[in-house]
């Protein structure tokens, strides 16, 4: 694989920011599904706020909920979402779950948690109000 030296690729101000993002790659999981559309919207907004918070802290974060927001969810089956999520998750250093109501019953969060335990990736949870993080499983 060919690597392009960053100073030749990025503007100076972007290079400064790039170098600040040197921590672990966090996969941000949270429940989304709910029969009430307003609950789904609140969950989506909560995830995006927390994702923004992490980025402002210079964390490297991937949020499948944030990523998929502009895609046609009816045209993409759950199996495709699971395949994409697990592929991304296998490259991450930490599974962080935003503790929104119902997270323990979420099919997606359960699948992601089971998968990372097999990969020995740490699992932590973040309080959606305080953003306090607790380790659930792993290092």
SSE diagram, text form:
Blueprint: H1 6-9, H2 12-20, E1 25-29, H3 37-56, E2 60-62, H4 64-67, H5 78-89, E3 94-98, H6 107-119, E4 123-126, E5 133-137
Parallel strand pairs: 1-2, 1-3, 3-4
Antiparallel strand pairs: 4-5
Helix pairs in contact: 5-6
Q: How would you explain this protein's 3D organization?
A:
The protein is α/β, with parallel strands linked by helices and 139 residues long. The chain has helices at residues 6-9, 12-20, 37-56, 64-67, 78-89, 107-119, and strands at residues 25-29, 60-62, 94-98, 123-126, 133-137. α5 (78-89) packs parallel to α6 (107-119). The longest helix has 20 residues, at 37-56. It is globular. The chain starts with 5 loop residues before the first helix and ends with a strand. The mean pLDDT is 85.
Strand percentage lies at 15-25%
Biggest sheet, in brief?
5 strands, mixed
Cα Rg: 16 Å
- Could you give the count of β-strands? 5
Total number of helices: 6
CATH architecture: 3-Layer(aba) Sandwich
How much helix is in the residues?
40-55%
Q: How many domains in all?
A: 1
Question: CATH homologous superfamily name?
Answer: Hypothetical protein PA1492
Primary descriptors:
five-stranded mixed β-sheet; 139 residues; 16% strand; alpha/beta; single chain; Rossmann fold; 45% helix
Q: Can you summarize this structure?
A:
The chain is α/β, with parallel strands linked by helices.
